[in-house]
Specification:
It is a single chain. With about 300 residues, this protein is an alpha+beta fold. The chain has 2 domains: about 1-140, Urate Oxidase (Roll), CATH 3.10.270.10; about 150-299, Urate Oxidase (Roll). The protein contains 6 helices and 12 strands. β1 and β2 form a beta hairpin. The protein starts with 8 loop residues before the first strand and ends in a 7-residue tail after the last strand. The protein binds uric acid. Uric acid (URC) binds next to α6 and β12. Its main location: other. It is found in: Peroxisome. Its EC number is 1.7.3.3.
Length: about 300
């Protein structure tokens, strides 16, 4: 009557912390991650026939994550995700694909009296670095890197006018508005043949470039719209990181409404006099795009 169409399973929310202690300098470097591993393969009978012999227990996946974290660097997270995926498909002949997601949390080194502290850190924002890697037996490794929850705002240098108007339109044109968004930016790497290829890539410098381009463009662009500004970000990341095939952004437009205060002693707080605004939590615009390289025409 029914059939299993798709299945994968694993351990989610594996919390992981690793410290590297430089014995010579006494400087510690810390990394904290939340890991999810999901396995695919010949596991159908575990669902349809209660056959647990094919199940690599989710607890085993968690223990494996700890052991491989001890035996390998966990930063950059792209490398560690590929190490985990490679282990699962090579260790278990009936497991044919491994999905590994890693969220890397921020621990920023404290500066005390102007000097970077050797072993004290703080969480400077909710921003996270995310990696989604899929290792498929006989195919290779696909990796998507992401920035999420990077909250930004500019108090001028943004406009939105000339948009389509009809009998449903109420929004006035804006030549100078506040622009605020929570950056979600992703970049998909070309398919890697194997772990050796992955290990050659400098994922950390790509992350720094993508983040710097995002912030610099946000700050410096005389923004005509969220759409136009985000396209410029994608275009620059593709130019800066040749191994990246596609860049995507999802940007909520976090609105700040002007408040009419003229009812109180004629206070001017609209247009060029506006200084006090009401930040809105919802609804918000949501602007998304994916940008890829133009295929080269054959001459
Ligand atoms: O940058 C913007 N893009 C839109 O599509 C849009 N729509 C809207 O109401 N405000 C904005 N702002």
């Amino acid at each position: 009557m029914s059939q299993l169409s798709y299945a994968r399973y694993g351990k989610d929310n594996i919390r992981l912390y690793k410290v590297d202690k430089n014995e010579k300098t006494g400087v510690h470097t810390v990394v904290e991650q939340t890991v999810c591993t999901l396995l695919e393969g010949d596991i159908e009978t575990s669902y349809t026939k209660a056959d647990n012999s094919v199940v690599v227990a989710t607890d085993t996946q968690k223990q494996t994550t700890y052991i491989l974290a001890k035996q390998n660097p966990i930063d950059p997270p792209e490398h560690f995700a590929a190490v985990l995926g490679d282990h699962f498909i090579k260790t278990y002949p009936h497991i044919h694909a491994a999905h590994v997601k890693i969220i890397q949390h921020r621990w920023t080194r404290m500066a005390i009296d102007g000097k970077l502290h050797p072993h004290s850190f703080y969480r400077d924002s909710n921003e996270i670095r995310v990696v989604e890697a899929v290792t498929r037996e006989g195919e290779g490794i696909t990796i998507r890197s992401k920035i999420e929850k990077l909250l930004v705002l500019k108090s001028t240098g943004s406009a939105f006018h000339g948009f389509h108007r009809d009998e449903y339109t109420q929004l006035p044109e804006a030549w100078d508005r506040i622009l605020s968004t929570e950056i979600e930016a992703g970049w998909k790497w070309k398919m890697f043949k194997d772990l050796t290829e992955v290990k050659k890539v400098d994922f950390n410098s790509a992350w720094v470039k993508a983040r710097d381009i995002t912030m610099k463009t946000f700050a410096e662009d005389d923004s005509a719209s969220v759409q136009a500004t985000m396209y410029k970000m994608c275009d620059q990341i593709l130019a800066a990181v040749p191994l990246v095939e596609a860049v995507d952004y999802a940007l909520p437009n976090k609105h700040y409404f002007e408040i009419d205060l003229s009812w109180h002693k004629g206070i001017k707080n609209k247009g060029k006099d506006a200084t006090v605004f009401a930040p809105q939590s919802d609804p918000n615009g949501l602007i998304q795009c994916t940008v890829t390289r133009k295929s080269k025409s054959k001459l």
